[in-house]
Specification:
single chain; about 240 residues; alpha+beta; Arc Repressor Mutant, subunit A; 6-stranded antiparallel sheet; two-stranded antiparallel sheet
Length: about 240
């Protein structure tokens, strides 16, 4: 029987710290043990302990304050305002589990606001989907999206359990331009229920329009629980 490769010592320390961070045993702003004490606890060199901590700092889970110590960061999920990333990939890259709930998929006629946003006439056909995106089972984004059937005719037939709307749109029409508007919003009881939050809790909304080769493809309203998500302007 083939021997399983041994887990590097620094990975054991890294997994130990990750487990405590993800379980909540080490909450945001918690100060972890100094690398010397971790090295003693695991019977390794300080260099090995340093490697584990350095990796988690690079992953954004820990932050070092020289002369003070190393602390667990505010672990809000985040997205870029400069580029469009697939939310499933963002979640998986953080080492977490991604899933979504499809609230609706429908072929509707465009009301005035949607027609204006998509550059189509009032009453024209438009595809609409509403999805709740989850990270480790917790809702982090409500996506209410309208798509032009002219450019993505098979959109509603997509398997959203396997591919997010972003993946489907990019595959059909590579994005050449985008528009973002961010606003703080009050939300109703329906949105609160979908995001599993109180009506009084703060929310952020990102309004996004995307173009492909000068064609306006999609208009989306992305709503985030303010205490679980942050938006950044750097790529």
């Amino acid at each position: 029987m083939a021997m399983m490769p041994a887990i590097p010592h620094y990975q054991k320390i890294k997994q130990y710290l990750l487990q405590n961070i993800r379980s909540g045993a080490y909450p945001p702003n918690y100060q972890i043990l100094p690398e010397g004490q971790l090295a003693t606890q695991f019977g390794v060199s300080r260099m090995t302990a340093n490697k584990a901590i350095r990796d988690l700092v690079q992953d954004g889970l820990l932050v070092r304050h020289p002369g003070v110590g190393t602390f667990v960061t505010d672990q809000k999920a985040e997205s870029s305002l400069i580029e469009i990333y697939n939310i499933a990939d963002e979640v998986k890259n953080r080492g977490n589990d991604y899933a979504n709930d499809v609230i609706c998929r429908e072929d509707i006629t465009a009301e005035e606001e949607i027609a204006l946003r998509l550059g189509i006439r009032v009453g024209a056909r438009v595809f609409r989907t509403i999805l709740v995106h989850r990270e480790n089972g917790i809702p982090i984004q409500l996506e209410d999206r309208y798509v032009s059937p002219r450019w993505v005719p098979g959109y509603l037939d997509s398997d959203f359990s396997q591919h997010t709307p972003n993946e489907i749109l990019v595959a059909a029409c590579p994005i050449s331009d985008l528009e973002h508007v961010v606003e703080a919003v009050m939300h109703d009881s329906e949105i609160a229920a979908w995001l599993e939050m109180s009506v009084s809790d703060p929310c952020l909304r990102l309004v996004r329009r995307t173009w492909s080769d000068h064609h306006l493809i999609s208009y989306a309203r992305l709503t985030y629980p303010g205490d679980r998500y942050k938006l950044r302007s750097s790529a």
